[in-house]
């Protein structure tokens, strides 16, 4: 009986811990904006003026992204590769412009920390790529020259 109660407590604690994590899908744009600014403030120790300006920059970016998404998303149409590539390039240019605006507000020490933050986020593996996931586990990785057999239409890495 004690083991069952203990197991239920462990499961309950795990469920609470998972649900305590903030999920962007359940957050309003204002909450997402506050989260982004708070993360920057925690990492860079921003002044009140910097927080206000960065909040303004991020809110403008979010409005622009919403307009772009509405323009790119046409109901019932599947975008072709050229459209997808153009959209990615457009989004990248917007992110770089936002980064440049933010860096202009920061002190040299904050700029250095901000660059480190951006570098770390750029080092994350693409979570959608199952090859990277398997490469982190050598026992599951395919041998050189072989496909992992998880690809639906053949291995895209091999082509």
Determine the N-to-C terminus distance.
57 Å
Spans of at least 5 consecutive residues whose pLDDT stays below 50 are none
Per DSSP E runs of 2 or more residues, the count of β-strands stands at 0
Question: How can the largest sheet be summarized?
Answer: none
Assembly classification: single chain
Structural class from helices and strands? Answer: mainly alpha
| Structural shape | extended
N-to-C series of helices and strands: HHHHHH
Helix proportion range? 55-70%
Query: How many distinct helices?
Result: 6
Report the sheet-strand fraction.
under 5%
Structure description:
- With 159 residues, the chain is an all-alpha fold.
- 66% of the residues lie in helices and 0% in strands.
- It contains six helices and no strands.
- Helix 2 packs across helix 3 and helix 3 packs antiparallel against helix 4 (81-105).
- The termini are far apart.
- The model has no long low-confidence stretch (mean pLDDT 78).
């Amino acid at each position: 009986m004690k083991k069952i109660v203990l197991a239920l407590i462990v499961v309950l604690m795990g469920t609470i811990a998972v649900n305590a994590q903030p999920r962007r899908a359940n957050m309003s744009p204002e909450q997402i904006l506050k989260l982004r600014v708070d993360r920057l403030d925690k990492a860079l120790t921003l002044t009140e003026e910097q927080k206000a300006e960065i909040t303004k920059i991020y809110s403008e970016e979010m409005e622009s992204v919403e307009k772009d998404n509405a323009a790119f998303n046409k109901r019932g149409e599947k975008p072709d590769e050229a459209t997808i590539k153009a959209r990615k390039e457009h989004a990248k240019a917007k992110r770089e412009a936002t980064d440049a605006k933010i860096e202009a507000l920061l002190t040299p020490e904050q700029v250095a920390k901000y660059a480190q933050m951006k570098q770390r986020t750029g080092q994350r593996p693409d979570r959608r790529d199952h090859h990277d996931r398997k490469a982190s586990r050598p026992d599951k990785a395919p041998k050189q020259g072989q496909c992992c057999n998880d690809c639906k239409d053949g291995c895209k890495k091999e082509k």
